[in-house]
Automatic annotation (TrEMBL):
Pfam families: TetR_C_13, TetR_N. Keywords: DNA-binding, Transcription, Transcription regulation. It comes from the Bacteria. The keyword Metal-binding does not apply. Residues 32-51 bind DNA. Residues 9-69 form the HTH tetR-type domain. It comes from Actinokineospora diospyrosa. The keyword Transcription regulation applies. This is Transcriptional regulator, TetR family. PANTHER family: HTH-TYPE TRANSCRIPTIONAL REPRESSOR NEMR (PTHR47506:SF6), TRANSCRIPTIONAL REGULATORY PROTEIN (PTHR47506). InterPro entries: Homeodomain-like_sf, HTH_TetR, Tet_transcr_reg_TetR-rel_C_sf, TetR_C. SUPFAM superfamilies: Homeodomain-like (SSF46689), Tetracyclin repressor-like, C-terminal domain (SSF48498).
Amino acid sequence: MDGRHARGAHTRRVTLARAVDIATVDGLEGLTLGRLAAELQLSKSGIFAHFGSKEELQLATISFAEEVFTEHVLRPAFQAPRGKPRLLTLFERWMDFSRARVFAGGCFFSTVMAEFDAREGKVRDVVVRWRTTWSELLTRLIEEAVEEGHLTPGIDVSQLVFELTAFGRAANHDSLLTRDDSHYDRALTALRARLGESD
């Protein structure tokens, strides 16, 4: 039983890793059990046993993307000192993550937010929750930077959250479209300048 469980867990992770790559290029709607089975040379019934439906597969893919993003971006960022250094490290790690194409199509969440912004349903609800959590995280880090004396008290936190997110999304989008990674450097320059104005 332990051996079967280990093989099943491995198959699930391999499947989700491929699903994330597909989703960043073709969207979550581009995911099908049949496509994954064919690309990974697995049985469709075996894939179905893990996910059961396309929606379950989409939700599991989002969850897996969150795990990978946490490992590559969030955990390292929280090793940085509290305040502006942590905020900058988070942004830098995010840009490095997208630039390295850890996911084939760049930032997974930028892709799925654009795909589901005008839709309804469980998948959109999960995407919206992730977007809310991300904004709350940035808000917390900016407020900590104010507490540490790194940013000016009274700064418009919501505006800075908007700008930071916009810089990152623009860099991801423009780099993918033009095949030019200099957009990530421009986003970092823009954020450093913005934070410098608040010193």
